[in-house]
Design goal:
The chain is about 35% helix and about 5% strand. With about 675 residues, it is mainly alpha-helical. It starts with about 25 loop residues before the first helix and ends in an 11-residue tail after the last helix.
Length: about 675
């Protein structure tokens, strides 16, 4: 028992088999290699869908997977989470899976070893020593960050290097409260930021910077200020009776504190004030579609970007970030990102039509499709009966089913669209075309000379539909939509010359900082002065500040900004922010956390997943909204406990003072 209880704090095989622990700290080169070796233990952040280390998109209402059973073949742990399979004893059928608790503590212990030995290498310059300390603190804080957002408040070890071969009592210690953990993790990121470089060279792309530390603080401060963790009905409903067994302290404070919104706003503003980041844009050219009349006639929408949507290509400005067209290492929108093969090997391949060598099953939900605005900024409800047609009932009098389809092909910004496309997919905002693959969409696959310009057809009998693939295969889009966000026009998985453009995953983008700043300001009722690091910030619900930060994201998408009426109503601004985050960060692992921090998890998950009818053999039967329910595995479970992943039961047995998350006992 004494040996097993220390497993998650032990150093396992590390660094290089030729070195023992003492050798790792004899010189600057070795200690740095040891540090980066520990950092390499983190999962690839793009690994959120298959072999997911975190619940990710499949556990939220933005994504769905057609795999119809569990067992060793299932590696979609977000679906396992949403369907209630994950328990304190089961985290997934393969490895890696959702049981990351122990790994994060191994990283923490390694970083504590580095901090304890920073004065050992004799060849350390002062500059190198401070740089290594900064990265070490960041890596350790990032391990705690992952624990905090996925498991809730962790056990905080500070700088302690936990001994091995001690008695059981030595290892037993309680969790921090949520407030204690939040202050500690943000404090460690603050210390790290002071020592980290503002920028890194192109060859070091993927290493975090001062801005990455500040941006993660901004993310955490926004979570801490949000309804689930900041008093009120949501905090009471989820955590009102959850107390630490060692001293009866509430794990989550039940007192509302508006200053948390001020801290969140200040943290976002600090990132903005660095002057290092901006939204990625591509200049308009002859292939850029003309802005709709409703957009350019807006009296507040007269300027070129950044004062309006004119002058840029909205499709490419958004799409190029994810497809590999924009060079990630010099993209100033990426505050922190990493090069990864996972986007091509899994997410991109998981969405590609089966007839082109893909799996065709990494789905987007109808809810997301409906959330995208029309090209002129109207909602689908506002546009119905004019440009947005969903059913015959939406058509003018005398309309027939054939009138629900486009008559002319289109090409814009290098994106081709056939005639005969369902009008629900016509005249939508550019992020829709950059992100969602729908029935009759073209997959260009231009690197292949034998398989290209393929139209994906998901009707039952067609080659990419449920019956065409195989009625028993999961390789079809069960909702009728797939994630196309990471597909470059040249990407191909079959045919002569097929290749994929290398891609980077955005861990945190500047667009998130802008929307977080707007949300935090919108929740303030008065002026607040807060301390952040060594700086003071005074913030308030400044309408111009909200407008400027939010509208930058909207303008980049080719859309009008918030109206004066919306800006004067905090509820309308919040609604706009929630919609904006849903589409802007689709499949970027933000939605899972957003619906929880807003206290709307149960509301969002109780609404059934909907899509088109995969059993539809013709247009009229296919384009019917349906609820996929082909097996019990696809029955999603709504339970308050799914705010967090459970702590492994094995850890609870080893550490008696360690309390389980609510609902899992």
């Amino acid at each position: 028992m004494a040996t097993s209880c220390q497993d998650y704090l032990n150093i396992d095989d590390y660094f290089d088999d030729e070195f023992n622990i003492d050798s790792a700290f004899v010189n600057a080169r070795y200690i740095e290699a040891y540090m980066w070796g520990a950092a390499d233990m983190f999962s690839d952040e793009a690994q959120t869908v298959r072999f997911g280390y975190t619940p990710g998109p499949m556990a939220a209402d933005e994504a769905f997977n057609g795999l119809t059973g569990g067992g060793s073949s299932n590696v979609y742990y977000g679906m396992d989470f949403a369907t209630g399979r994950i328990t304190p004893d089961f985290y997934g059928d393969s490895s890696p899976n959702l049981n990351q608790w122990g790994k994060y503590y191994k990283i923490i212990r390694k970083m504590n070893n580095v901090i304890q030995n920073l004065d050992v290498p004799k060849d350390f310059t002062t500059t190198d020593r401070l740089r290594i300390e900064g990265y070490t603190r960041f890596i350790r804080a990032y391990a705690y960050y992952n624990l905090l957002v996925d498991y809730g408040p962790p056990i905080i070890l500070g700088d302690e290097v936990v001994n091995t071969n001690e008695s059981l009592e030595y290892y037993d210690r309680p969790r921090a409260t949520y407030d204690e953990a939040m202050e500690y993790v943000c404090g460690e990121f603050e210390k790290a930021a002071e020592l980290m470089p503002k920028e890194v060279g192109i060859l070091d792309f993927g290493r975090p910077t001062k801005g990455a530390a500040y941006a993660l603080i901004a993310r955490l401060r926004l979570i801490h200020a949000s309804p689930l963790f900041n008093g009120g009905s949501a905090a009471s409903s989820y955590f009102g009776s959850w107390k630490r067994s060692s001293d009866d302290s509430p794990y989550v404070s039940q007192q509302y504190d508006e200053s948390r919104w001020a801290l969140a706003a200040a943290a976002a503003k600090r990132v903005m004030d660095l002057g290092l980041y901006q939204l990625y844009t591509v200049k308009a050219d002859e292939s850029t579609p003309t802005l709709p009349e409703g957009v350019i006639s807006d009296p507040d929408f007269y300027g070129v970007y950044p004062n309006g949507a004119a002058g840029i290509d909205a499709f490419r400005s958004y799409s190029d970030i994810f497809t590999g067209e924009a060079v990630a290492a010099i993209n100033k929108e990426l505050i922190w990102g990493r090069n990864t093969s996972y986007l091509n090997d899994y997410i991109n391949k998981g969405s590609f039509p089966p007839s082109l060598g893909g799996w065709g099953r990494f789905c987007v939900t109808q809810k997301v499709v409906d959330a995208y605005l029309m090209a002129d900024g109207r909602t689908k409800e506002e546009a119905r009966g004019d440009t947005y047609f969903e059913t015959v009932a939406d058509l003018p009098a005398g309309g027939t089913f054939d009138d629900l389809f486009t008559e002319q092909p289109k090409t814009f910004s290098g994106y081709p669209m056939n005639a005969g496309v369902f009008k629900m997919y016509d005249n939508r905002e550019m992020r829709f075309y950059a992100s969602v693959g729908f029935n009759e969409a073209i997959w260009q696959a231009l690197s292949s000379t034998t398989v290209n310009m393929h139209t994906a057809k998901y009707y039952y009998q067609d080659v990419d539909g449920r019956g065409g693939v195989s009625a028993t295969s999961p390789d079809y889009p069960i909702t009728g939509y797939v994630i196309k966000k990471f597909d470059h026009a040249y990407d191909a998985f079959s045919g002569t010359g097929a290749r994929r453009i290398p891609k980077a995953y955005p861990i945190i983008r500047y667009a998130e900082i802008l929307l977080s700043y707007a949300e935090a300001l919108n929740n303030l009722t008065g002026s607040q002065t807060v301390q952040l690091g060594d700086q003071q910030y005074t913030v308030s619900r400044d309408i111009d500040e909200i407008k400027n930060s939010f509208n930058l994201v909207r303008y980049r998408a080719g859309l009008p900004g918030l109206s004066a009426n919306q800006l004067n109503n905090p509820a309308d601004v919040q609604q706009a922010i929630e919609r904006e985050r849903m589409v802007e960060f689709l499949y970027e692992n933000r939605r899972f956390y957003d619906v929880r921090r807003w206290g709307i998890y149960e509301e969002s998950e109780r609404e059934p997943i909907r899509g088109m009818n995969p059993d539809g053999a013709d247009r009229e039967s296919y384009y019917r909204r349906t609820i996929p329910a082909t097996s019990s595995y696809l029955t999603r479970v709504v339970d308050k406990k799914f705010v967090w992943v459970p702590i492994p039961r094995a850890e609870l047995r080893r550490l008696p003072s360690l309390d389980q998350n609510p609902g899992y006992n």
